[in-house]
Amino acid sequence: MAAYFDDTYDVETRRGDENALRNLRERPPDVLLTELAFAALESDEVLRLMNTPGLRGVPFVVLSTRTDFASFETAHRMGAADFLTKPFRFEDLRAKIRDAVDRRRQRTAGRLKLGALLVASGLVSQQQTEAALARQKADGRRLGEVLVRDGLVSDHDLVQALSGQLHIEVADLRQVSPTPAALGLLPRDFIIRHRVLPLSIDEAGALVLAMTDPLDVVSIDEVRLRTKRKVRPVICTESGFDEAVSIFFSTRGKLREQRDDEAQQNDEAAQAQDASIIEIVDGLISDAVSMKASDIHLEPREDVLHVRCRIDGVLHELREYPAQMQPGIISRIKIMGNMDIAERRLPQDGRTSLETSGGEVVDLRLSSIPSLYGENVTIRILEVSPLPPTLGSLGLTDGSLKRFEEAIAKPEGGIIICGPTGCGKSTTLYTTLELIKSGETKIYTVEDPIERKLHGVVQTEVKPTIGLTFAKALRSLVRADPDVIMVGEVRDVETAKMAADAAVTGHLVFTTLHTNDAASSIHRLVEMGLPPYLVAAAFRCIVSQRLVRRLCRHCRKPHSIKASRWEELGLGKAPKRQMHVYLPVGCGKCFGTGYLGRIGLFEVLTLDDELRDLIAGGCAAGELRAAARARGVETTHEDGLRKVLEGVTSHLELLRVIA
Ligand SMILES: [Zn+2]
Asked: Residues 399, 376: one domain?
């Protein structure tokens, strides 16, 4: 590494230990390249050090072997200028270093300009400024901080002088409080690191941003990118900023307590109707919908309201709000869902629909659960994206696709889709129903809950509280002249028996089971109490499914794995000496996750006469499994390996889902 960059930069290499930290503190570099974790140091010790005043101005690039979003997010929140995953190309690293150096030069230019402005305002002399600049360079603090600390100017005079020279307003943070809508736009760590405080949104839609250094164009740029708003900087004093941060982001402090008293006098309902709170909640949901999230989790912690969202099955950090905004936000969501905002000790459910800023109407399911620091609220965003247009786009290929198509083309028989929660069973069922529906078939469903509305299909949702169970709904609809029946889930022998009876009496019946593979589904039905001969007679096809994230094609990168490593990882027997696969990277198109969308892994077993005989004879699951393998039926794992080698998904993702 050092040798590669020797021609352009002075490179110093340090191992990640205590000496390295001391060196950093004593002689700050212009740019730091760092790992995310070292053997001898706590994972984020270096990153935390970079947030101390002396090193705050030093840009750092994180190099990591880890490709998960959490590491990326940690580095990002800690203020990394950039992030590179290993193995990387030296040219990429060189470009990132050049970029970091350029930004640092811009900041330095800003500082020189600040010095000149202060001299021009007559507040300090040229000599004083130069001396301060030299000291500032040594300890990494901002020029303004140095001048104030040295007693050359007062905080207040400095701000007034700059305001006059730059023609921008002064914000007295002891008088002006940020509006919740503005404060919610940036995460706490960002605010503290960049020393900027979002104050309000002006009539023109621009974000009014209090800054201790309004010449810091790099921070302005970052805020503009993050909030997608024009930024109108106003200037505030360093001490005012520190005090405001301690008020808005700390659990302690006297001013905070005073504000708490006021807040408690306010009616929570009124707070929830506050226009800015409404805007925050709407914005949050709109953002989650545009990122194709399936769930939003609002999690009260000791000092913040933490918000995460699930995208393609995996949780990602989304926002953080100061704790005092929590009651308003939670109440607002409960009002939207028609829930009782006064009830905070018992879990509640609600539902609503919302038109996002993008004009999309989404259905939402809300649920609240009391937790240590307040109510934990989950918002499920019901599927609005169009269904996959074909069975092939679900991920079914070759033999599996052919077997499944044959099974659904027949007018009768039972078809089971099995797999754990969140494996895409519903999407497969809905896509199949959408494809087989026609003017000549009558399709009924019984579901818990209805996850997606299908045009031209009669959908019923079970309501156990009023006695409408799967069994009861099924009993009435078999008398209502159906052709196709979809039973959301078989949980008891009564429902299983009715579904099987319908399948042997001329209906096509779809259902799901929570089992791991095709053979264990048969076993589960028998275990439930369904006679083996009925299972053998009724069911025609069993599909076992898993869901993996698709690699983002815009940023995935090739990678090779040796056979020994492949087997060590638990991927099974290596097909070759060296496997060519792809790794996730992360780019703008995939929100930095490296993945875009999902695809199913399938095992499709159709039951021929020989298999039916085996089942009717009460064979063990292992025997059935062996018979399936003998017929060339691929397991979900095998389907997954094929998709890894094709570059559709990564081996890391396969291990996450299969293991
Ligand atoms: Zn990407």
From this structure: no
The phi, psi pair for 207, rounded to 5°, reads: -90, 120
Ligand 1 centroid to 582 CA: how many Å?
A: 12
Domain holding 44: CATH number? 3.40.50.2300
Output the CA 588–ligand 1 centroid distance in Å: 6
Report pLDDT digits (tens) over 435-463. 999 988 999 999 988 888 888 999 998 98
Q: How many domains does the chain have?
A: 4
Instruction: Please say if the pLDDT value at position 69 is more than 80.
Output: no
Same domain, 518 and 481: yes
Ligand 1 centroid distance, CA of 623 (Å) = 43
552 CA distance to ligand 1 centroid (A)? 5
Q: What separation in Å is there between the alpha carbon of 12 and the centre of ligand 1?
A: 33
CA of 596 to the centre of ligand 1 (A): 7
Domain extent at residue 16: 2-88
Ligand 1 centre to CA of 564 (Å) is 29
Distance 462 CA to ligand 1 centre (A): 40
Residue 170 per-residue DSSP state = B
Residue 191 located in a structural domain: yes
Give the pair of three-digit tokens for residue 446.
């019984």
Task: Give the Cα separation of 112 and 128 in Å (integer).
Answer: 13
Judge if the upstream peptide bond of residue 87 is cis by omega within 30 degrees of 0: yes
* Greatest Cα pair distance in the chain: 99
pTM over 0.85: no
pLDDT tens across 23-59, in order?
877 887 888 888 766 655 665 677 777 767 667 767 7
Q: Is the dihedral of CA 272, 330, 175, 188 positive or negative?
A: negative
